[in-house]
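User: ok so my PI wants both of these folded by tonight, can you help

Assistant: No problem, let's get them done. Here's the first:
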Amino acid sequence: MSTPLAIVWFVAVLMFLVFIHELGHFLTAKWKGVKVLEFGIGMPPRIWGKQRGETMYSLNWIPIGGFCKMLGEEDPSETGSLASKSAGSRLLVLSAGSLVMLVFPLIVFSLIYMVPRDVIVEYDGPLKISEVSEDSPAYHAGIEIGDEILTIAGTEITTLSILKEVTNESTGTEVPVVLMRDSEEVEIEMIPRPREEWPPGEGAFGITLDLGEATPIKEQESDPPWEAVSNGATLYWDTIVTTKDGIEALINQEIDFEVGGVVAGGQVTTEIAETGDWHDLMFWAGLLSFNLGVVNLLPIPALDGGRIVFVLIEMGRRGKRVSPETEGKIHLAGFALLIAFIIFVTYQDIARIFRGENLLS
């Protein structure tokens, strides 16, 4: 995929994620009887708008973000306002957008396994050795890094599957192994270990192969829907665990804190497009949705999570609200800081591009 097409794809995915996020707010608001004044994609100024019933549906010029403008988000005095609804209803409406974005990756990850993909099923030699484990059969037999396996027990080793097959047939018995070392053939004797004697992370020989010069043989595979959903759920759980581990490493100062914005997202997309395939881009779309869903739930004023905090405070105070004026001022200040932060992050992202730095390398 070319860079311009990758950027178009990224913008389309971002706008779609914004759409389903705001749609989550919109549908739950309508369900709970909240008056929606405007449902907009992009940020003003407006390109197009159509009034249908109580709601203005609009498309706006700035292709970043979107909004679902509801009546009285802080003021409960107006009929049909968000603030006039019960705390439970408000929590549902405010969290719906992020919940949709957290569910969407599960759908995308499942589709990754349904769509036909190239899977490496074999490696065609040369099979060279990149590592020899200490106290292993290969170590005691004198195998060295850089050796190429030619034959085992008289069988020519041309592919990885042949190597595995011959090794399994030879476990526990001494077999001759012919290697290519510095353009010369070297013959040794070795006893491959039975599977029950394999140390963790090692195999019968105790070697690691360098497959960089081998030719990968690929076949197209796709999973049936029931397996794809299961595999997608596993991938989703792995994403959650990886996110948790990353947060813990950040708190423990084991990794540096780095943040990226829309420009960084576009840069990552172009880098994936240059080196990966559609499955990688689909995974990135799911990961982007997951991250945005989590970020929107953070207790930051002006974000959904910030508004949820005020509802939780009200519930903790047994129905006593923070005044609409105070809440509005806090959200306004939070919005101003958020805009300033976005500008700063965007500047950092653009500077990174001009420095020629990649995000995935």
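One down. Here's the second:
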Amino acid sequence: MSELGSVSPISLPTRRQRTVFGPLHETLFRSLWVAAVVSYTGTWMQNVGAGWLMTSLTMSPLMVGLVQAASSIAVFLVVLPAGAVADVVDRRKLLLLTQLWMVLAAAALGVLTIAGAVTPTLLLLFTFLMGFGAVLNDPAWQAITPEIVSRENFTAGIALNSAGFNVARAVGPALGGLVIFAAGSGLAFLLNAVSFFGVIYFLLRWKRAPGRTSITTGHMLETMLDGFRHMRGSGTMHAVLVRTAVFSVSAGALLALLPLLSHAFGCEGYGLMLGIFGVGSLAGAAILSFLRHMMSADALVASATSVLALATYAAGRRPGFWAFALIMLVAGAAWIQILASLNVCAQTMSPHVMRARAISMYLLVLQGGFAGGAALWGAIAERIGLQRSLQYAALALLLGIAATVWFRLHPLAVEPNTIGMD
């Protein structure tokens, strides 16, 4: 692999660059994208292993729901400081630190699992530690996108990042299910630890270009307060954050309770269902550009939310294997339509000097909503059963569409006119 350098903005994009695959013709972006897909695949194997291991330790819906909550709850503790730090320190060094943290956490959980020493509490603890590293990582990770792709390919780069995540979502769970079936969850955790090394290698080789360094002065608390002041005065941010909150709290119910819904199909069936969800996400991403030309962001999110609500309701009916697979396929397609629309808005809702802090606020709401929703719907299912819990989650998704009236989305409200200058 050649030494990685910087991307020079091109004033006049070529026909190749205007396509959705344009960023893959840029060496820097392509190198990180491939490494990221491998890492995402390991993460999905970890998710399958953790969810299935908990069902092996206890069949409590609350404890199973807490697995997803534990992976996201760190967002409440550190995502805002993480965004401020990402605007203050060298993002490359910060990412190296967070990647190594996740390697150690995944490896330790793998060793403990193979040794038979894992309890439900320990599983939740290490899931939390993995989530802690991921939360520290995410604002800096998303904020470097303009540094590794040219301005002309910025929007396509965001779309390809989502596509890469969903390639891994399609492959990782199915692969994880097979690994767990053959050798247990411990090996899945160890393979996840190994999967981070591609990204680490990229970061070690990456030479950040002069002029693309982060802010190096200012007190972190003041930096965070600047972010809050900006958020308070930005109607665009209000819309993105409110819509994200309304979606995430209810949308996470299906995935949080999926280990129990698919338990009758075995660990490989659980992994396959997550994989089918990922295939649906890929299909949804493939038609996303076409749909955006046909309808506004608000109409697209509202339509996809309605489809996801119907899929959530249908999943609660405990259908057979093939019907359930179809439901997960449709749910995945709807899921990516919503998340991709919100993510584009979040990436461009603030000027470049506020990018990491704005993204950290978006991640706080998104991941916090998933974490709170997973715990909430797990607790509700514990009391009233899986079917009624998912019915209420579907109803909440439909009611949340009303937020469109007061909080409208405006993709590219802040043009990336100085992409790559932070």
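The chain has one domain: 23-406. The CA atoms of residues 392 and 401 lie 15 Å apart. Good luck tonight!
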